[in-house]
Amino acid sequence: xxxxxxxxxxxxxxxxxxxxxxxxxxxxxxxxxxxxxxxxxxxxxxxxxxxxxxxxxxxxxxxxxxxxxxxxxxxxxxxxxxxxxxxxxxxxxxxxxxxxxxxx
Amino acid sequence: xxxxxxxxxxxxxxxxxxxxxxxxxxxxxxxxxxxxxxxxxxxxxxxxxxxxxxxxxxxxxxxxxxxxxxxxxxxxxxxxxxxxxxxxxxxxxxxxxxxxxxxxxxxxxxxxxxxxxxxxxxx
Lengths: 104, 123
Fold this sequence. Notes:
The structure holds two protein chains of two kinds.
Chain A: E1 2-5, E2 8-11, E3 17-23, E4 31-36, E5 43-47, E6 51-52, E7 60-65, E8 68-73, E9 83-88, E10 94-95, E11 99-103
Parallel strand pairs in A: 2-11
Antiparallel strand pairs in A: 1-3, 3-8, 4-5, 4-9, 5-6, 7-8, 9-10, 9-11
Chain B: E1 3-7, E2 11-12, E3 18-25, E4 36-41, E5 48-53, E6 59-61, E7 69-74, E8 79-84, E9 93-100, E10 110-113, E11 117-121
Parallel strand pairs in B: 2-11
Antiparallel strand pairs in B: 1-3, 3-8, 4-5, 4-9, 5-6, 7-8, 9-10, 9-11
């Protein structure tokens, strides 16, 4: 079970944004983050809690351990307004409920 | 360039079986060691992993759906398939075919996704 917060986040371009996922038990950094825009499939951003997927901008970063993990966008860009999901892969595979990042 | 393409009926009646096929191009299911999978997303809601399969036919199942889900592979056609029995309105969703980031790992993240196929359950 993955609890993601907040469910909605209002922010402005240039803001630092943090999204949190909490697991019901330790998942040993087996955590990924995805970005999804309306009408499109999710896109992998981060795997292994902190490893940036190839081609993903450096303003995205992941951290955490045990049961608590965060996705940080250091300076929000217009292209970053989207919904973000965490996924744990410590068996079975489950996703958080999503965080919609909207324009303030 | 790897591409995944889902296909199948867009409308299924309640209590019937949903069937989808994922055609893989740009990679060979039988020559790679990936657990190809299915993930779904009800309209306006979150993501749910349904299960995964390797070219050998070995599956990795979601315990909560195992009794209704069958995933199969056709290496000759380079396709994987999904069957979901006894559907209800709650099974209305976009169904995605996915490839994991890691070879040989059944529990991993997913770096390739199809465009998705909307299936509506309605009489």
